[in-house]
Sequence to fold (549 residues):
Amino acid sequence: MMHSSRVLVLYNEPTLPPDHPDADSEHDILYTSDVISKILIEAGYPVTRLGVSDDSAALLAGLREHKPDVVFNLYEGTAKYGNTEAYVAGLLEWLGIPFTGSPSQALWLARSKPLTKHLLAGAGISTSAFFVIDQLPVPRCTIDWPVIVKPGREDASVGIDQQSVVTSQKQLEDRVEYILNRYGAPVLVEQFIGGREFNVGLIELPDLQVLPFSEIMFIDKTPGYWPLVTFDAKWKPGTRDFQATPPVNPAEVDPDLREWVETIAIRSYQLVGCRDYARVDVRVDEKGRPYVLEVNPNPCISPLAGFAEALKSAKIPHAQFVVELVRMALQRGGTTVPGSGSWETPSSTDHTTGNNSTGAWQVRPARSTDRPAILELLDRLEGFRPEERELLRERLLSATEKGRRTAARSLVLASRGRIGGFICWHQSSQPFGVFVLDGFGVDRELRGRKWSRKLLEEAEQIIRQAGGRLIFAELSSRPEFVFARHALFRLGYRVTGDVPDFYRDGSSRLSYVLHLKRNASRVGESAPQLAAESSTAETSNSPNTRDTA
Fold:
């Protein structure tokens, strides 16, 4: 499909000579810009490229010459003027040219590690103790050893090596003086957290989603060798640091810790004002407490980078992610471009509800012939207690009973006879348009693709057309149901009750309510058809809502 919108791939031309010790961090952008350009050309966009270094006039001249409808912004600043990353985004905003990635304010805030740390601490987000040095002499260290010394305005691990971690006042003074002379002020001194390290990718296209974590595995346990992602570890294959820090995605993470890390990553993303995509780096201490190290708007999205591995683990095609960034930027600029934000390969899957193309997943009313597949899926889903599973089984069987109008209602996510998800509800005995959500679930391989939300949206439309004014749901506070809680919250459900230790110690029962607006716009065109196919609601009781999506 050919598109009329002109895309300019904007990147920073390397300014350091090839033999400079920090040169590798600049030259990687050339490969990334090549890959992005090729993806967009294959997607049917007219693409031009513009590399800019320290000359702002070249940027203005290039924008006038190329006249882009949208800019794919890969510009990261230059070695001499790192803050130009934010300046370029600000100029695009001033000119009214839509662009991918974070706005100028987020880029400006995140470029300053000390400022980001102050913001995190002020917002109550856990980050390690720190102080900032702008000039000599170095003050007495007031936080526990060891500490790590970093350039305050560099990224990509520039200025980080094994000597960055110090254990005495003399080492601190020597390292701070070195950083001031080489990179300038400010210098960030923070307590060194020696535990696990996670890179947490987030995307917002348009809903905010946390990608599977990457963990940096510190495999060199030699005494005195610090578990640290240095410049060499990031950019120089074959070095000791590189070999000692292999990343693994997805990381194996305890559910409680996963929820904790996801929560602070989302809060950090929103606090800094990131957009489209970002990475939050987190360290976990020996007591299992996570600390945000830094927030990275517009991280590297080369297919060789860790962010691409996280997309792969989430079953999000890298090329489709790139194209979606352009589509969202065009929409922000007022241009509507066909697309869905869904993460299936176009050759096999169409994500529009009701599309009957071969292999397409679609949301439709449950049928009696779906019973075996629905029950098989229910048996696979974790998290349900035995009595909850049995009650939901009864509801689903009732909803799919052929030739009868029954109390329960159910929709399924179906493709070629497969059932990938379900949702079940019924009308309360109260004569006030109150409906109760019995449960919903999505197969593990389809999670993270918004199908839970789609099932909830379609059910809401049917309930609205049946005269519903309120939907009630109950949910456990256990960590494994964090995705269900997020799905309900994003659709406007709000907690109205919390019964502590209802299920067991530490597991509360949360009551959720969604108030329906009778004249609200429809979510999908297929909702009237689905409502017509659903049978009339009757009275029943409900188990607690559960979701494993």
Q: What stands out?
A: The chain has three domains: 7-100, 110-329, 362-533. Confidence is low (pLDDT under 50) at residues 341-359, 519-549. Residues 24-42 form the longest helix (19 residues). The chain is about 35% helix and 20% strand.
